[in-house]
Amino acid sequence: MSLHAELVDAPTALTTLADDWRALAVRQGSAFLTPEWCRAWLEHPGRGEAFVVAVRDDRGDVAGLLPLCREGREVRFLGSELGDRFEPLAAPGLDLEVTAAAAALLGRHRGDALLLRNVDEDAAWVAAFARAWPGTLTRTRVRGNVLPYVTLAGTTWDAFLQARSRNFRNQVGRKERNLVRDHGARFRMADDPAT
Q1: Exposure class string for 40-49: b at 16+ Cβ within 10 A, else e
Q2: I want to staple 164 with a disulfide (CB 3.0 to 4.6 A). Which of 6, 59, 148, 168 is the partner?
């Protein structure tokens, strides 16, 4: 199967690709890669010009997406200065192929500097991106951070808390009560994408 990539401006992508986009982001478990994140970025204006690299298969189906923005000569994941854990969105089993198709397209725009902020530098897609980039790609590590995260798939919040220390549970409870008392925070369960 061959894949081809195209640039789509963010407002058009939010209209025409939203369902596929959301499904891919849910599969990968990242709120920072959703169309809703992009919409919020556009409405509270982020810096730069937002666009999406849409990667399609031979049938024209969406195989993957990279929500990006350009500010001057710098290209980065959209909202990466505010979120965490960014990566290309891809259909199952197509991660490296989607990455390669996107890199080939982006690499044609000479002079752009690609800033991969809040990515796992050891992820296979980063190496695939560099291999697929046309010409020479200079890789510079600016700064390293630890991006802590907890995988909650297959468990409940109560089960997660129960597996933690008493001190941790007490701290979470105290912080939750303070949020409610001091800021009027409310929590509700959203158990389907429509809500």
Answers
A1: ebbeeebebe
A2: 168
